[in-house]
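Here is the promised in-class demo. Please do not try to memorize the tokens; focus on the logic of going from shape to residues.
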């Protein structure tokens, strides 16, 4: 079994900055996917919840924004060393602009695939 190194980020985007953030996703994706050792990269926006539904039923669509809109990214690498190089490039290029769009710094979780 080949274990890969994975980063998952949580972005809590200000409600009035959604268009700007989604534009940045396009630019970031183009550059992130080119990083040495990158296996895959995905972003998704949280649209649904299972709160208040019966198990077995489809998830319930979110209908209002409370304080932010949550986006997640999943970035997969062949090694943690290549990830280390890539995250430096990411911070150098995007951290300042991203911080203006978020209610809090993005949360990063790291680990190996199992």
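The designed amino acids, position by position:
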């Amino acid at each position: 079994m080949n274990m890969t190194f994975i980063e998952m980020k949580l972005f809590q985007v200000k409600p009035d900055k959604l268009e700007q953030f989604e534009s940045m996703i396009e630019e970031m994706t183009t550059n992130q996917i080119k990083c040495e050792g990158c296996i895959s990269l995905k972003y998704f926006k949280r649209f649904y919840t299972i709160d208040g539904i019966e198990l077995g039923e489809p998830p319930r669509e979110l209908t209002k924004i409370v304080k932010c809109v949550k986006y997640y990214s999943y970035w997969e690498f062949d090694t943690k060393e290549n990830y280390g190089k890539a995250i430096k490039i990411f911070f150098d290029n995007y951290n300042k602009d991203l911080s203006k769009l978020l209610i809090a710094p993005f949360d990063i979780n790291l680990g190996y695939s199992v």
